[in-house]
Amino acid sequence: MLPRMIRKTWDGDLAIIAWAVLACMGLALQPRVAAAVEMIPLDGGTFLMGSQKHYREEGPLRRVTVGPFLISKTEVTNAEFAEFVAATGYVTTAERALDPAEHPDWPADLLQPGSMVFAPPQHAVSRRDSTAWWRYVHGANWRHPTGPESSIATLDDHPVVQVSPEDAEAYAKWAGGRLPTEAEWEYAARGGLEGADYVWGESYDPVEGWKANTWQGAFPQKDDAVDGHHGTAPVGSFAPNGFGLHDMAGNVWEHVADWWVPGHPKVEETDPRGPPQRLAARFSPPEVGPRRVVKGGSWLCAPNFCHRYRPAARQAQEMGLGTNHIGFRIVRDRE
After folding, report:
1. Which letter, b or e, does each residue of 57-91 get, where b requires 16 or more Cβ atoms within 10 Å of its Cβ?
2. Is the pTM of this model over 0.85?
3. pLDDT tens across 148-190, in order?
4. CA–CA gap between residue 277 and residue 296 (Å, rounded)
5. pLDDT tens for residues 6-27?
6. Helix (H, G, I), strand (E, B) or coil at 100
7. Strands 39-42, 6-8: parallel, antiparallel or unpaired by DSSP?
8. Alpha carbons 89 and 83: distance in angstroms, whole number
């Protein structure tokens, strides 16, 4: 346990370790002319963003317009991220040690490279305390998602995890794109379904077949994995939404470009870019710094706990930290 360093998010779904925002590596990440990522063109449009039926940070419901853009059909995979690292020599935040001079009061083990890993408890715990199932693990990174003994050797087609917003932005820039705004992401996730709770419609009935990689069983102790997957699934394992996009619900949370505040403004907007960084800093512990938004839920989302495998769902994630249930996809502007 890391009692002074771990904080809970808005409702305790994610454990957060109070890392400072790490300095960029200064690498020359030259974008390619065309990345080997399949992109889906979207014309954009006006839709109802948010929800007033679930968690308060998802509201208020408002009308938003987004312009045309291209978005990757699936989450960025381990193979695609490995190509980026091989081409640039990029080192992710989880692979970097912290400077002791910048953190004189931190214990030495927290300065070592590593990241957050889900560790299911062996007994019943309070679901109010997410530190009961998250651990900071030395040597956990995108190549070793759950620690130094783990490997992605057979997971080329799984979404890359243990990447921070900083890492995701570096990949997106190299690939000739960017991270989607929260509005673009939610518009894409809805797949043309106005106001529906889920990316496939109004209800989630397993009798109809599993529609996303989520948690089945008593969270956080036991995942029954009746959808066929414990942990991440190969991208595209479940049916696409109305726009032909896979895994816009479940599998892994996805980084977007917006800074986090616990709610939306009560105004209609066109191509919103989210709140300013200085406002986000007011809604985060000073030792953590302003955080960014993640969308879509993950394989850890369960009906009895998270219930965030929905387009409107959103949570906060700090800049210098990854976990083994957060990834990303990219967008490009249309000419």
Report:
1. bbbeebebbbeebbbbbbbbbbebbebbbeebebe
2. yes
3. 999 999 999 999 999 999 999 999 999 999 999 999 999 999 9
4. 22
5. 333 333 343 333 333 333 333 4
6. helix
7. unpaired
8. 10
